[in-house]
């Protein structure tokens, strides 16, 4: 049975179409794998009954010859997505017990395309973190290990990454505000795509930083990301920032032919103290794309070093506003009040009990940078620097660059618990290569491309032009084929 | 720019998050670390640069100003920690 869960979405789709396997069989195999993998902390709300019901409906649809793109494919959904009648709490205590009365647009689109939901996946609280250690459910654990030591799967979409890497599901949804799809994908040897801002509707996804958040697919390879993305995106009248653009057939664009494409290598991404293995992988990636017929050019993105500080003004500012809704009135947790407590005490106690330390820290930083007297010095300045960061990319694209190649992360997966005493800024550095992409609203994809000396997976990132995910996926496909990464974690859980 | 305990307490108040007095020195220290990191932005020449409003220069879609939904009181209240007689219940706000 476990062989079934190892299938790619494309392979499962073909097998389902030929009647070689049923969705119910695939789904049962995944449910068994999930029940045997509690040590990974990936699935935090399991929905086996719903999964079987959806699988049976999918089998009926296939039998009737009405299969859609994802009919019968079992997926995991990040806890940030509101799923009707199923706990959706953004890994936060403050949303304890919350069962939405509605379905997020992205999950609804996946289900409309026939996908089966296996359950909800672990993440950092409100998607704030890079190691999945801020979750109210406890840590998600990387299926990859070194000497029996538990490693982080990355964050914030750590549960999604662990579940896909451990073959608990065929694919998963993630969200990416500063690297939360691409960094965990790189840490677990899977593929993850953050689309152009506006490609996927944000409606029904718990908001962190609205100008940066995007949902995207996390899957076993580039083709599966293309299949999932097509089902996830498209205009939604319920999100005024979702783009009213035609959704191309992304899978059909995967030819692997990148001859004549121009790939930029940004010199500012060569950082002091970068591990030699990352540097070497980057050089190999450059050579792979060159061998595939692409033209490689060195480019400059001069404001790169200011991306993280810009992000740590804008994201907390937007978060402090978005998270104001958690007040203990309409949903989730409300603190027990003492005699004489009024409404202010109710807000303050509820939010102190409901938010974890990292969320509290970011809400307060956001409050500070937006407060009277500091708005111009911090928030407006950061928005201006953001304009400059985006302009750097526009200049590169104007010079004819089709895609930009960078490392996905500054290191391989690190041990859980390492960050306990570290200062918060050290953790923020995880997103150094990914955060620029969110600030500029561009599509970016992490592709597994090699392993470090300890055998841990390492990823490369490709950044594309806005709205050209199809072209970006094709370049990633060429890189995937050249890298030939087939590593799998040895099962210990 | 350095944040003292008084400022930290004020920010916590504005954010409506209760922070014990004993934790204020540590909180102020954390703020200073993060703000020290953010401080790098003051090196950048932003003269004449427009602050970004939206990454894609798009005009937000408009829809007809019509009622499209409603009459879902039970659903709206279904997740409330305290709902009574068709309303959200909160501690007394006015004397």
UniProtKB/TrEMBL annotation, chain A:
<keyword id="KW-0436">Ligase</keyword>
<dbReference type="InterPro" id="IPR000120">
    <property type="entry name" value="Amidase"/>
</dbReference>
<dbReference type="GO" id="GO:0005524">
    <property type="term" value="F:ATP binding"/>
</dbReference>
<feature type="active site" description="Acyl-ester intermediate">
    <location>
        <position position="180"/>
    </location>
</feature>
<dbReference type="InterPro" id="IPR023631">
    <property type="entry name" value="Amidase_dom"/>
</dbReference>
<comment type="function">
    <text>Allows the formation of correctly charged Gln-tRNA(Gln) through the transamidation of misacylated Glu-tRNA(Gln) in organisms which lack glutaminyl-tRNA synthetase. The reaction takes place in the presence of glutamine and ATP through an activated gamma-phospho-Glu-tRNA(Gln).</text>
</comment>
<dbReference type="InterPro" id="IPR036928">
    <property type="entry name" value="AS_sf"/>
</dbReference>
<dbReference type="GO" id="GO:0006412">
    <property type="term" value="P:translation"/>
</dbReference>
<keyword id="KW-0808">Transferase</keyword>
<comment type="subunit">
    <text>Heterotrimer of A, B and C subunits.</text>
</comment>
<dbReference type="GO" id="GO:0050567">
    <property type="term" value="F:glutaminyl-tRNA synthase (glutamine-hydrolyzing) activity"/>
</dbReference>
<dbReference type="InterPro" id="IPR004412">
    <property type="entry name" value="GatA"/>
</dbReference>
<dbReference type="GO" id="GO:0030956">
    <property type="term" value="C:glutamyl-tRNA(Gln) amidotransferase complex"/>
</dbReference>
<dbReference type="Pfam" id="PF01425">
    <property type="entry name" value="Amidase"/>
</dbReference>
<dbReference type="GO" id="GO:0016740">
    <property type="term" value="F:transferase activity"/>
</dbReference>
<keyword id="KW-0547">Nucleotide-binding</keyword>
<feature type="domain" description="Amidase">
    <location>
        <begin position="25"/>
        <end position="473"/>
    </location>
</feature>
<comment type="similarity">
    <text>Belongs to the amidase family. GatA subfamily.</text>
</comment>
<feature type="active site" description="Charge relay system">
    <location>
        <position position="156"/>
    </location>
</feature>
<dbReference type="InterPro" id="IPR020556">
    <property type="entry name" value="Amidase_CS"/>
</dbReference>
<protein>
    <recommendedName>
        <fullName>Glutamyl-tRNA(Gln) amidotransferase subunit A</fullName>
        <ecNumber>6.3.5.7</ecNumber>
    </recommendedName>
</protein>
<feature type="active site" description="Charge relay system">
    <location>
        <position position="78"/>
    </location>
</feature>
Automatic annotation (TrEMBL), chain B:
<keyword id="KW-0648">Protein biosynthesis</keyword>
<dbReference type="GO" id="GO:0050567">
    <property type="term" value="F:glutaminyl-tRNA synthase (glutamine-hydrolyzing) activity"/>
</dbReference>
<dbReference type="InterPro" id="IPR036113">
    <property type="entry name" value="Asp/Glu-ADT_sf_sub_c"/>
</dbReference>
<comment type="function">
    <text>Allows the formation of correctly charged Asn-tRNA(Asn) or Gln-tRNA(Gln) through the transamidation of misacylated Asp-tRNA(Asn) or Glu-tRNA(Gln) in organisms which lack either or both of asparaginyl-tRNA or glutaminyl-tRNA synthetases. The reaction takes place in the presence of glutamine and ATP through an activated phospho-Asp-tRNA(Asn) or phospho-Glu-tRNA(Gln).</text>
</comment>
<dbReference type="GO" id="GO:0006450">
    <property type="term" value="P:regulation of translational fidelity"/>
</dbReference>
<dbReference type="Pfam" id="PF02686">
    <property type="entry name" value="GatC"/>
</dbReference>
<dbReference type="GO" id="GO:0070681">
    <property type="term" value="P:glutaminyl-tRNAGln biosynthesis via transamidation"/>
</dbReference>
<dbReference type="InterPro" id="IPR003837">
    <property type="entry name" value="GatC"/>
</dbReference>
<dbReference type="GO" id="GO:0016740">
    <property type="term" value="F:transferase activity"/>
</dbReference>
<keyword id="KW-0067">ATP-binding</keyword>
<comment type="subunit">
    <text>Heterotrimer of A, B and C subunits.</text>
</comment>
<dbReference type="GO" id="GO:0006412">
    <property type="term" value="P:translation"/>
</dbReference>
<dbReference type="GO" id="GO:0050566">
    <property type="term" value="F:asparaginyl-tRNA synthase (glutamine-hydrolyzing) activity"/>
</dbReference>
<keyword id="KW-0808">Transferase</keyword>
<dbReference type="GO" id="GO:0005524">
    <property type="term" value="F:ATP binding"/>
</dbReference>
<keyword id="KW-0436">Ligase</keyword>
<protein>
    <recommendedName>
        <fullName>Aspartyl/glutamyl-tRNA(Asn/Gln) amidotransferase subunit C</fullName>
        <ecNumber>6.3.5.-</ecNumber>
    </recommendedName>
</protein>
<keyword id="KW-0547">Nucleotide-binding</keyword>
<comment type="similarity">
    <text>Belongs to the GatC family.</text>
</comment>
């Amino acid at each position: 049975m476990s062989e079934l869960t190892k299938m790619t979405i494309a392979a499962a789709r073909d097998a389902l179409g030929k009647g070689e396997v049923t969705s119910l069989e695939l789904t049962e195999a995944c449910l068994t794998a999930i029940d045997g993998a509690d040590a990974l902390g990936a699935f935090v709300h399991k929905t086996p009954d719903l999964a079987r019901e959806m699988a049976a409906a999918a089998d009926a649809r296939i039998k009737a010859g009405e299969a859609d793109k994802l009919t019968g494919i079992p997926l995991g959904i990040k806890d940030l997505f509101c799923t009707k009648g199923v706990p959706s709490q953004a890994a936060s205590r403050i949303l304890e017990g919350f069962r939405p009365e509605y379905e997020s647009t992205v999950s609804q689109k996946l289900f409309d395309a026939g996908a089966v939901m296996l359950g909800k996946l672990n993440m950092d609280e409100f998607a704030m973190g890079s190691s999945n250690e801020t979750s109210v459910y406890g840590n998600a654990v990387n299926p990859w290990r070194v000497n029996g030591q538990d490693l982080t799967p990355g964050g914030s979409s750590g549960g999604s990454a662990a579940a896909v890497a451990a073959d608990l599901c065929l694919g998963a949804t993630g969200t990416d505000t500063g690297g939360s799809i691409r960094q965990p994908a790189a840490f677990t040897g899977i593929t993850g795509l953050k689309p152009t801002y506006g490609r996927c509707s944000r409606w029904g996804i718990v908001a962190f930083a609205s100008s940066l958040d995007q949902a995207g697919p996390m899957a076993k390879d580039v083709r599966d990301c293309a299949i999932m993305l097509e089902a996830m995106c498209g205009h939604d009248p319920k999100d005024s920032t979702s783009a009213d653009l035609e959704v191309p057939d992304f899978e059909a664009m995967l030819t692997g032919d990148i001859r004549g494409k121009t790939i930029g290598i940004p010199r500012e991404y060569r950082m002091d103290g970068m591990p030699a293995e990352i540097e070497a992988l980057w050089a190999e990636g450059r050579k792979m794309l060159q061998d595939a017929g692409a033209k490689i050019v060195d480019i400059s993105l001069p404001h790169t070093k200011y991306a993280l500080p810009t992000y740590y003004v804008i994201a907390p500012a937007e978060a402090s506003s978005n998270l104001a809704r958690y007040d203990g009135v309409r949903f989730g947790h409300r603190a027990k009040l003492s005699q004489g407590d009024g409404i202010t005490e109710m807000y303050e106690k509820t939010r102190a009990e409901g938010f974890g330390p990292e969320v509290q820290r970011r809400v307060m930083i956001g409050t500070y940078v937006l407060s009277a007297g500091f708005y111009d010095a911090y928030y407006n300045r950061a928005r201006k620097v953001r304009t400059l960061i985006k302009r750097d990319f526009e200049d590169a694209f104007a010079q004819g660059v089709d895609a930009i190649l960078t490392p996905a992360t500054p290191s391989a997966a690190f041990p859980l618990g390492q960050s306990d005493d570290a200062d918060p800024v050290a953790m923020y550095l995880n997103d150094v290569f990914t955060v620029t992409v969110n600030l500029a609203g561009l599509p970016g994809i992490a592709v597994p491309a090699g392993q470090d000396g300890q055998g841990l997976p390492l990823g490369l990132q490709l950044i594309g032009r806005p709205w050209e995910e199809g072209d970006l996926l094709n370049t990633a496909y060429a890189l995937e084929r050249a890298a030939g990464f087939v590593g799998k974690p040895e099962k210990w859980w | 720019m350095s944040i003292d305990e008084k400022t930290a307490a004020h920010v916590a108040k504005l954010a409506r998050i209760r922070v014990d007095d004993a934790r204020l020195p540590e909180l102020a220290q954390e703020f200073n670390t993060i703000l020290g990191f953010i401080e790098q932005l003051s090196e950048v020449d932003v003269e004449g640069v427009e602050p970004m409003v939206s990454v894609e220069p798009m005009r937000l879609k408009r829809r007809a100003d019509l009622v499209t939904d409603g009459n879902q009181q039970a659903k709206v209240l279904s997740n409330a920690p305290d709902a009574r007689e068709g309303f959200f219940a909160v501690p007394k706000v006015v004397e």
